[in-house]
Specification:
The protein is an alpha/beta fold. Helix content is 22%, strand content 27%. It catalyses: alpha-D-glucose 1-phosphate + ATP + H(+) = ADP-alpha-D-glucose + diphosphate.
Length: 431
């Protein structure tokens, strides 16, 4: 990959608060709603967009915002996640006061104690954060897709003198029932926190929308350190930011909402702020397929706010054969390097690195993770195919719900997840 040049601030510009901050990324969760996609990897390690993994988005936002000190807490099946960060995020230079620490749950506090919750993941590493000698800590979820300048949120935090600043999405009230919702006054101060309320409160300026938590929090480190130590002594606590710490601050301290629209990075092609929790098969499929649109809702071609990752050196994508009925072509699709579309048709699909599609096969609205091999004459529609899957010749997916349900995982919205163990069971039963 190209190593980013980490430059200082321009002469005469005010000092960036990000230089006094660290990003603490919570990346330990399985993401069970992604079903078999997270059987072998944590949700933040799941591939996205043809080139990236989900963890690359919060890390890139931090880097692009000017933050040079980061820590990533891992727990569930973290090998592929750790390997990805070692390969793709190894350009920090300690001699320039830049760090990225990987913090697996390692029983540092007690031999039987793993990370008990999001707050506990920070509590167990208080001494490590102290070593950073930072003034502010930004707590980030490692499993969302978005572009955001955290410097803007930091400045609001300092200007308001808040104990905590909570990143919030503006969503229609009827959709807010699935989120933690912030009830704010006219100044943006949070006066109540409601977890998945049946009747979400509107905002002061618009009763039809609500403010939903993004799982992004800014604290002064001195304040957070003391809060975490108090929480660790509370045997009734779940040791979770959303369930315990944030509601406690709302009740007895100073909590302010930061609206994502104020810090979302957009190029002018996007029509509205983009944030996605790609936590289900349906949302994961949709967010990837959305990238194939002529003007996608998320602009990944923005060189001014790049999403950094581990970039493999691969040969170009190749399209082979040009005969009627056997023409290698991809229409309204994203095709990564080292893919070979051989005598097959690909429509509105996203193919990750190393995918092969063989003659007479057809793919329509398919997300194929790295190194998928699609056999001759196979037809795939509305599908997510896990990495290193071999699709047998002539297999049809996405056309017959009963047949899909027999062998694969089909969502209520008709999206079919295909993994190699599913295909192996199918092959064994057909022998």
């Amino acid at each position: 990959m190209t190593i980013p040049i980490l430059t200082g601030r321009d002469a005469g510009a005010p000092p960036r608060l990000s230089s006094q901050a660290m990003a603490f990324v919570l990346a330990g969760g399985r993401g069970s709603r992604l079903e078999e996609l997270t059987d072998r990897r944590a949700k933040p390690a799941v591939q996205f967009g043809g080139e990236w993994r989900i963890i690359d988005f919060p890390l890139s936002n931090a880097l692009n915002s000017g933050i040079r000190k980061m820590a990533v807490a891992t727990q569930y099946k973290a090998h592929s996640l750790i390997r990805h960060m070692q390969r793709g995020w190894n350009f920090f230079q300690a001699e320039r006061n830049e760090y990225l620490d990987i913090l697996p749950a390692s029983q540092r506090v007690e031999e039987t104690k793993w990370y008990l919750g999001t707050a506990d993941a920070v509590t167990q590493n208080i001494d490590i954060v102290d070593d950073y000698k930072v003034k502010y800590v930004i707590v980030l979820a490692g499993d969302h897709v978005y572009k955001m300048d955290y410097e803007v949120m930091l400045r609001q935090h300092v200007e308001t003198g808040a104990d905590v600043t909570v990143g919030c999405l503006t969503v229609p009230r009827e959709e807010a029932t699935a989120f933690g919702v912030m009830h704010v006054d006219a100044t943006g101060r949070i006066v109540d926190f409601l977890e998945k309320p049946a009747d979400p409160p509107g905002t002061p300026e618009d009763p039809n929308v609500a403010l939903a938590s993004m799982g992004i929090y800014v604290f002064d480190w001195d304040f957070l350190r003391e809060l975490l130590r108090q929480d660790a002594e509370d045997t009734s606590s779940r040791h979770d930011f959303g369930f315990d710490l944030i509601p406690a601050i709302v009740r007895g301290g100073s909590a302010f909402a930061h609206r994502f629209s104020e810090s979302c990075v957009m190029t002018g092609l996007e029509t509205e702020p983009y944030w996605r929790d790609v936590g289900t098969i349906d949302t994961f499929w949709q967010a990837n397929i959305d990238l194939t649109e002529f003007i996608p809702a998320l602009d990944l071609y923005d060189n001014s706010w790049p999403i950094w990752t581990y970039a493999e050196f691969t040969p170009p994508a190749k399209f082979a054969h040009d005969e009627e009925g056997r023409r290698g072509q991809a229409i309204q699709s994203l095709i990564a390097g080292d893919c070979i579309v051989s005598g097959s048709e690909v429509h509105n699909s996203l193919l990750f690195t190393g995918t092969r599609t063989h003659s007479y096969s057809m793919l329509d609205r398919v997300v194929a993770l790295p190194h998928v091999d699609v056999g001759r004459g196979a037809r795939l529609t509305n599908a997510v195919v896990d990495s290193r899957v071999h699709i047998p010749e002539g297999l049809v997916v996405g056309e017959d719900p009963d047949e899909d349900n027999r062998w694969f995982r089909r969502t209520e919205n008709g999206i079919v997840l295909v993994t190699q163990p599913m295909l192996d069971r199918r092959a064994a039963s057909l022998e």
